[in-house]
Write a structure and sequence with these properties.
The protein is mainly alpha-helical. The chain contains eleven helices and no strands. α4 packs across α5, α6 runs antiparallel to α7 and α6 crosses α10. It starts with a helix and ends with a helix.
Length: 261
């Protein structure tokens, strides 16, 4: 939540208030402005985590509990995960035209591997009618490690390491660090290159509207189809769910993407 709050205040809220135009009129390059915003937010997040770490460490020294499970690594993973989410949200703010758009894109990207990979796999499993073992293995071993949302849900506490081992040593903090760098570069490029600041649209780049709308409709069809099948495990529920999902996806994408604010 800390990373989301900082990123939305720095870009989405500033855009809503019309202050972004003043910021860009200052005698600084766009890259300098983005770097200042990014490292200011990242610095505050790091400072808060460091202070929390030392206060908790002093508390542990005073109380001397019998066990402290993964104290140091837990704090480090929490730090890099927060920085990764912050970097993601700031990049979303560089692509969108309002605070609510920034929040929606951040959440959608955080769960994108589930939507883009796991949902089609589930439907393929339903059509082929396998024993779902390959879906479960792919979910735990491949999809979860690359989904940003899982790094703020304590996934490593319930992952069966013996059954689904880590890709490599340090996976739990190396992957979010890599994603943080990727999101940072996307945000920097977008902030430097987007054509106009306040166009009242969901995305600042109009060329993104149609591909994203198609994705939303597809995800609606797949998601509601899954719900329809899960409700009564029948082909009728599956088809009805997909139809409803297509309608919901089309309406949602229209009102979110094409309606100007």
């Amino acid at each position: 939540l800390m990373g989301l709050l900082f990123a939305i205040i720095q870009l989405g809220y500033e855009r809503n208030k019309g202050q972004i135009d003043f910021t860009l009129s200052l005698p600084f390059s766009r890259s300098t402005i983005y770097h200042t915003k990014f490292f200011l937010g990242a610095g505050i997040i790091t400072l808060v985590h460091v202070l929390s770490y030392f206060l908790t460490y002093l508390l542990i020294l005073g109380t001397q509990p019998k066990e402290t499970f993964d104290f140091n690594s837990g704090y480090f993973i929490a730090l890099v995960s927060t920085l990764m989410i912050y970097s993601l949200c700031l990049a979303a703010g560089a692509l969108t035209g309002s605070a609510i758009s920034q929040a929606i894109v951040t959440f959608s990207t955080a769960i994108l591997p589930y939507l883009l990979i796991w949902l089609p796999m589930f439907h393929l499993d339903f059509i082929v009618r396998t024993n779902r073992h390959w879906v479960d293995v792919s979910y735990d071993y491949f999809i979860m490690p690359i989904a940003p949302i899982t790094y703020i849900t304590d996934r490593f506490q319930f992952r069966d390491i013996d059954k689904y081992p880590l890709w490599f040593t340090g996976e739990e903090f190396i992957i979010p660090i890599v994603m943080m760098i990727v999101f940072y570069l996307i945000g920097l490029f977008s902030f430097m290159k987007h054509p106009i600041e306040r166009n009242g649209r969901f995305f600042l780049y109009s060329k993104m509207d149609r591909p994203i709308q198609i994705l939303v409709i597809v995800f609606g069809v797949l998601g509601f189809g899954w719900v329809g099948f899960s409700s009564d495990t029948s082909i009728l529920g599956y088809i009805v769910g997909m139809i409803i999902g297509g309608v919901v996806g089309a309406l949602t994408s229209y009102f979110l993407i094409y309606r100007k604010r």
